[in-house]
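**User:** Hello, beginner here. Are you able to go through the protein record under this note? It all follows right here:
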Amino acid sequence: MKYYILHYYYVAPKGDSGETLGQVLDLSNACPTCGTGTKLVGGLLVTGLNNVKKDFFATEAQDYLISKKLYDIFQNANILFETSQVVNKKGEFLDFYHLKSNYTFPKMLPQSKGFKIGLLNQCKNCKRDNYLGDLVWDSKKKANMIVPFQLSFEVEDKRFLDQSDIFQTWEYWGKSTMKFLRGNPMFGRPSLIVNERIKQIFEEQKIKNAFFDEVIIL
């Protein structure tokens, strides 16, 4: 079985979500300094999705959402995954589902490539946040290519991989802080690691703006 980092690329995010909207949070197992590892309480709080028709997209906060159509396809294919229906500020459930995972991969191995770490602003306590995608710059100092991830992991007990079809990285992409906007926090997000069953469904459904970087599992 092959595994991939799932990306949403090249188009503007749709709407916003999560903690900056006042999401109820569970900080019991999060980093006490920056909040990385915080869990949601209830469905993901969203705004600005009234006119969205996509089957897969990312919000401004980089939460990945899927349509009810794609959710039903996952269910019918017996995909093992965790999700919850999103909710707006009025408490109304929308026909989108938050794609997430409760299963966390071990830390990336040192030979992993395609990213950098914002060391100056990384949390000194957990050192899990502020991982950043890397870019190639042209002679005019304009970014002209996103560097593909080349991530490697050591999974000692391969039975771990049987528990789900969707996993998350230990590393969080983007800065986490407990005080960002109007007293609300803002957290980085882990990348999602999916297996070839998910990739096949995306390809069969011709999902746009979804890209897959294969990972190496030792």
Q: What stands out?
A: The longest strand covers residues 93-100. The CA atoms of residues 98 and 194 lie 15 Å apart. The mean pLDDT is 93.
